[in-house]
Amino acid sequence: MDQHDLGDAATRHTPVLLQRCLDLLAPALAADGSVMVDSTLGMGGHTEGVLRAFPHVRVVGIDRDPQALALAGRRLAPFGDRFTGVHAVYDEIGEVLDGLGIDHVQGVLMDLGVSSLQLDERERGFSYAHDAPLDMRMDASRGQTAADVVNGYDERDLARVLRVYGEERFAARIARSVVRAREKAPLTRTGELVDLVRASIPAATRKTGGHPAKRTFQALRIEVNGELEVLERALPASVEALAVGGRIVVEAYHSLEDRLVKRTLAAGATSSAPPDLPVEPETHAPYLRLVTRGAEEADEAELARNPRAQSVRLRAAERIRPTPDHLRGPQPGRRAA
């Protein structure tokens, strides 16, 4: 990626539901010295919005993608030491904050899913619309690629990935076609995979529901990057990073992500006492308060500005007390309180 590419993050990326995120975070970021973690920095759109809206706030931006960090770092350079970028996966939020000497933060923002940068960089292999190497790694410097998955998994495991992570009805047929094709030669290009998927799905079904390879590509991306496992660790770790009065805002883009977010926030906002107790012990009282009613979606104005907001589901919660000891799991890498 050349220097010109690094300089135009603002024109390449429109942050999803930015104003709504700012409104939800505002009560938590009101005090001087407030710190927010942007767990999925991407090209820095949400962080730039926060730094402009709250001149007294510092943001720590986490991203596993070195390209995204470079791009966002250039965009956010005018804010000086109010922004700190860290190369890490966002389930490492505890270790990141410890490394910066920060005990707790007032805000955490997660904008999940694939970033504009990854979709737009054709050679990364995230898009089914362009022929490219079968890669799909958010951090291209490490880990298995999509080619490793499609050429290395047995038929049953491949079908499971497509069915569970892509919610693909024809997972078994696609897996069978992939295994048959790779016996002749390994699959190395996204175009090859798109053709295989299209041929595996009945013609009548291909006429509706968008691009026939969309669900397969989603499933492979989730598998390659361990997205759901990371999110499952990151959500409780992020809640533990919040000070009392702090808020977490999460934007999810498919039902599997949103289900994990809903479950974590709802658990924190629900009493853990047995239902038949006459009086709720203080140690079982909720430690979160939901500040959105269900999952919020983009309105027509937002969709007109930003088509990538089509599938967003936004949820937010506020920490109202520390997590009771019996509900707080181990926090790998964090200092003892």
UniProtKB/TrEMBL annotation:
First-listed, main subcellular location of the protein, grouped into a coarse class: cytoplasm
GO CC entries: cytoplasm
Alphabetical keyword list: Cytoplasm, Methyltransferase, rRNA processing, S-adenosyl-L-methionine, Transferase
Region ranges (Disordered): 297-337
Residues annotated as binding S-adenosyl-L-methionine: 44-46, 63, 90, 111, 118
Enzyme class of the recorded protein, top EC level: transferase
InterPro entries linked: RsmH, SAM-dep_MeTrfase_MraW_recog, SAM-dependent_MTases_sf
Cited function: Specifically methylates the N4 position of cytidine in position 1402 (C1402) of 16S rRNA.
Protein known as: Ribosomal RNA small subunit methyltransferase H
The species this protein was found in: Cellulomonas fimi (strain ATCC 484 / DSM 20113 / JCM 1341 / CCUG 24087 / LMG 16345 / NBRC 15513 / NCIMB 8980 / NCTC 7547 / NRS-133)
